[in-house]
Structure formats: structure tokens, C-alpha cells
Amino acid sequence: MISPELSIRLLLFCAVIAAAGAAVTGYGVWLGRASEASRDWPVVTGQLLHAQLALKDQDRLSQPKRQQVKPENPIYRTVRVWDLDVAYRYRVGDREYTGSTATSTLLAEDALDDARGPGESLRAAAARLRPGPVPVHYDPDRPDRSFLIHVPDPQAPHTVRFGLWMMAGAVAVALLLVLLKRP
């Protein structure tokens, strides 16, 4: 039998986990909506100057997985990644801009094995880009923000799913506690 005090603590813990799950789910929905909003950005015809797959160095935060508190002086590690390197020009109104963002969502991939080459998504994006006229999607609020190819954010559905599992788990444990408490 679970003591009433422990039961209340466990129910509070379940409520906190359920609330965190709701927050994670909301963040995932926001990611998806933000990704979809960029799909509707205005499009102008720009000039693609160059596009190539390239190995680049990317700095990433490196901290122990179990560390709960962010360090005052974070340590970064450099990772080799495959990236789509592009340069293009486009005009919005009477102003000309330059851009270097190939896709609406970051597609950089870890280059764990340089001989293997870039993954399918990067190769497919690169195959669509040839120097010359190209459609450029730009942010109507900030025309200097732009990209060439819309790619839905792959993290959004995973984030929503994870948040829903958090909430379902918390509710399941809370129901189990309630059922165990009954005489």
C-alpha cells in the first residue's frame, strides 16, 4: 500500500511531467507551423551564382549528457559536416540582396565517414540547383532572410510525438496510483 503522502508526491510529479509534455508538444506544433509559414513566403526569381556539396567544420556545444546546469564557459567541439554551399542574388522591390541559405531547414549532416559522402536529402537538394535563374523565397517582414528550397522541419513531428508520450505516461502512472489507492 502506498502512503497518502507518497501518493500525493507521485501525483504532483505526474502533473509536472504532464505539463512538461504539454510544453514539448506545444513547441513541436510551433516548429511545424513556423516551417509551414515559410512555405508561403513570397517568391521572386533570383540568380544562382554557385551551388555545391561541401565538407565544412561546424562548432557544436559539447557538454556531458548528465550535466543539468549549463556551464559558465561552455566547451565547443568542431564536427565535420556535409553542407549545401550556395550563393545567389535576388531583388525585392528596388533593393538587391544576396543569399546563402539553400533550404528552409538545416540539412547539414555529420560526415562520420568522408568516403561515404553526403546523404540522400542533401544530394537530392543539390541536384535541384544549377547556376542560372532560380526561385527565391524571402521573408516579407525581413527580405534579407531567404532560402531556395522549402523542406519541412523533420524535428517537428518527433517533438510532438515525444511530448504526447510524456503526457500519456504521466496520465497512465497517475491512473495507476489512483487505482492502487482504492480500497
Q: Which descriptors would you attach to this protein?
A:
6-stranded antiparallel sheet; alpha+beta; 183 residues; single chain; elongated
How would you describe the overall organization of this protein?
The protein has one domain. Strand 5 and strand 6 (146-147) form a beta hairpin. It is of the alpha+beta class and 183 residues long. The model has no long low-confidence stretch (mean pLDDT 80). The chain has helices at 4-39, 120-127, 155-181, and strands at residues 43-62, 75-92, 95-99, 109-110, 132-138, 146-147. The longest helix is centred in the N-terminal third of the chain and has 36 residues, at 4-39.
What does this entry show, briefly?
With 183 residues, the protein is α+β, with helices and mostly antiparallel strands. The chain is built from three helices and six strands, in the order H-E-E-E-E-H-E-E-H. Strands 1, 2, 3, 4, 5 and 6 form a six-stranded antiparallel beta sheet that branches.
Q: Provide the residue-averaged pLDDT.
A: 80
Q: Give the biggest sheet.
A: 6 strands, antiparallel
Count of distinct strands = 6
Secondary structure: helix percent: 25-40%
DSSP helix count?
3
Shape: elongated
Query: Taking Cα atoms only, what radius of gyration do you get, to the nearest Å?
Result: 23 Å
Low-confidence stretches: none
Q: Distance N terminus to C terminus?
A: 10 Å
Relative strand content:
25-35%
